[in-house]
Every structure is written in C-alpha cells, then in structure tokens.
Design a protein that fits this description.
This protein is 64% helix and 0% strand. The chain is mainly α. It has one domain.
C-alpha cells in the first residue's frame, strides 16, 4: 500500500534512494518561513532562488525526470545569481530570523547524491549571500545535470 501512496502523492515514482530526501524537503523546507512572506526585494530573491533549487531537488528525486523543467529551474538560478544587484540591500529582522531557521533545518537534509549535495550547498550560499561561491556551485550542478542530459543550452 505504501507504493500506491507514493504514486498518488507525487504522481510519479520516487527513486528509493531519494525518498528520505524528498520527504524531508516536503515536510520541512518546501513551505519554508521566507516563502511568500519576504519583506524586502532581497528576501524575495532569496526565496525565489530557494524555490528553484528545491524544484530541481524534487524533480531529481523521481525516476522520470523532466529535463525541460530542470533546465527552466537551472536557468532561473543562473539568471538570479548573475545579477548581483538582486542581493544588495538589508534584510528585515523577520527575514534574518527566517533565514536562520531555514539554515538550521537545511542541515538535516539527506544528500544521497552529488547533485543533491550541490543543491544543499547552493541554498546555504544563497541564504548567506555568498554569490561567488553560489555561482560556482550552480555551474558544477549545471555540469553534472548536463552530463546526465537533464539540462541543455537554449539556442538564441
């Protein structure tokens, strides 16, 4: 019956090695305190990028992975991180508190693959606005996903 619950809940099969990661994300981080409640444009950008990274994590945890969807999210991360102006400004006291809560919760996220480790690291770097490091981590994640044919360059 557990397999039926998984199919109904997610609409797709979860890879068994990613089940605990997906469950942890859905329970603790999918609806994190910053999401939908940011007080500043910087807080909103952080929430926007965390959501994109989480979407990649959720999609990557499935047997069938939609490369177009993953590509859309990896490009969102790239665009957001490449504009340093998105991160200039002070956070509100609420946002500082929420970011601290997210960082504490993120520590417990299981990382069954290098790609999930990159996502976890990337989120932590975004939370503390380590943009140079976040860009490098995003590039490493992008490289791994490209090697697996899960992201691609869009011709201009």
């Amino acid at each position: 019956m557990n397999w039926l619950k998984t199919v109904i809940s997610y609409g797709r099969w979860l890879r068994s090695d990613f089940e605990s990661t997906r469950e942890y994300w859905d329970k603790n981080l999918e609806h994190n305190p910053l999401r939908g409640r940011a007080d500043t444009s910087v807080g909103a950008m952080i929430a926007f990028l965390i959501e994109a990274a989480g979407d990649i994590l959720r999609e990557y945890s499935q047997d069938y992975r939609d490369a177009g969807y993953i590509n859309e999210k990896i490009n969102r991360l790239k665009r957001g991180l490449n504009n340093d102006a998105n991160f200039i400004g002070a956070l509100s006291s609420n946002e500082i508190k929420w970011i601290s809560e997210i960082k504490s919760t993120l520590v417990g996220l299981p990382t069954p693959s290098q790609e999930i480790e990159y996502i976890k690291t990337l989120i932590l770097q975004i939370l503390v606005r380590e943009l140079t490091e976040a860009k490098l981590t995003q590039q490493m994640l992008h490289g791994n996903l490209t090697d697996q044919k899960l992201t691609f360059e869009i011709p201009r």
